[in-house]
Amino acid sequence: MKKRLAVIYDTSYLMADRFTDVQKLVECMVLYTCHIYPGEILSEELKKGHQNFAAEGWKVHSRKKNTDPKTRRVRSYTYYYWRFGESFFQIDNFIPSEVCKEIANHFSSAEKEQIARRARKFVASLLEQGVREIELHTLAKPHVSGHPLGADSPTDQLILGYAISLVNSNYDFVIIASEDGGILFDAIQLALAGHPVFCLNKERHTKLEEQLHIVLGDDSVTTTAR
After folding, report:
1. Which DSSP string do the residues of 186-200 spell out, in sequence order?
2. Among 95, 186, 192, 208, which is least packed by CB within 10 angstroms?
3. What is the CA angle 3-173-130, rounded to 5?
4. Burial bucket for residue 83 (CB in 10 Å: 0-12, 13-18, 19+)
């Protein structure tokens, strides 16, 4: 049975210099991963594994270097495989109407107009795919942590409140796509308190993979070769 996962997009994520379609990211991350260590000859078993992936329609989505933080030397390479149409999750994406309004407000800024147009185009493509546009103020109560580092805008607090309501209903995991430091801080506190809420930004893709494997338990497949 697939796990239920919700994705909530925040303005700061969509207005960043670069962002990723979270659904596609999740579908790639939770499939097969293979760790290859430099300077070592690939075993016949691992070579066979690569061939089997290709024969079954799996493709290499990306390769990531894992470096030693002190020496900056490459310690290993991680390959992510994916196959179209397969996922361990039932993924529901949510676009708050409050976020759409905030994006529209950026059109008056010469510096942010181009980014705002790209963000609106992406939102439009999601809505065409059946993604729900929601009005947060009618669905959730704001989550106000009261911490000086926590979320301070009304929309951000509503996003956090909606995430809590989703995990308290029937969702196994909620991803908030946000570059906002306040949302990140509060999401970490919620996770520490036992709520399966994760804040995704451009620096935390690897952390997301770790969390998804935890949510999946033994349902996912990871192969590691040394």
Report:
1. HHHHHHHTT--EEEE
2. 192
3. 75
4. middle
User: Could you tell me which CATH number the domain at 3-30+87-220 has?
Assistant: 3.40.50.1010
Say whether 94 sits in a helix, a strand or coil. Answer: strand
In what helix (H) or strand (E) does residue 104 lie, and over which residues does it extend? helix 97-105
pLDDT tens digits, 122-171:
889 888 888 889 999 999 999 999 899 999 999 999 999 999 999 999 89
- Can you read off the two tokens belonging to residue 63? 């390769």
Which regions of the chain carry the CATH code 3.40.50.1010?
Answer: 3-30+87-220
- Cβ burial, residue 110 (10 Å; 0-12/13-18/19+): exposed
Angle at the Cα of 152 (from 148 to 153), degrees rounded to 5? Answer: 170
Comparing CA positions, the residue from 194, 188, 197 lying closest to residue 162 is 197
Find the helix or strand (DSSP H, E) in which 212 lies: helix 205-216
Other residues' Cβ atoms within 10 Å of the Cβ of residue 117: 13
Q: What is the 3-state secondary structure (H, E, C) of 155-173?
A: HHHHHHHHHHHHHCCCCCE
Give the global pTM: 0.72
